[in-house]
Amino acid sequence: MPPDRSGKGRPGEASGGSREVYLEVHPASGGFVKVCAIDAETGLEVSIVGSSKAPQAELERVAINKLRYVMERDAKSKKDKPSKDKPSSGGDDGGGILI
Q: Which residue range or ranges hold the DUF6898 domain (predicted)?
């Protein structure tokens, strides 16, 4: 994918198949740059901070990989959560404190 320097975002590879990913590149103080990757379908956003001397394509690749990781982690945690119909065997199920 050629770099898009317009700030409007561009399609990218996120999780498995082809998904539209918007990339934002923001200069930060101290010689750093912040890159945000946003999944167009879910609105999930992640960001990384890197050296302003690093190639923009490399920073974008890292941001997209982080987005892919977070999406896969969230999908796995949804799959692993017990349904509300089944009794919980304890642990952190998001419920209250029983006394």
A: 19-74
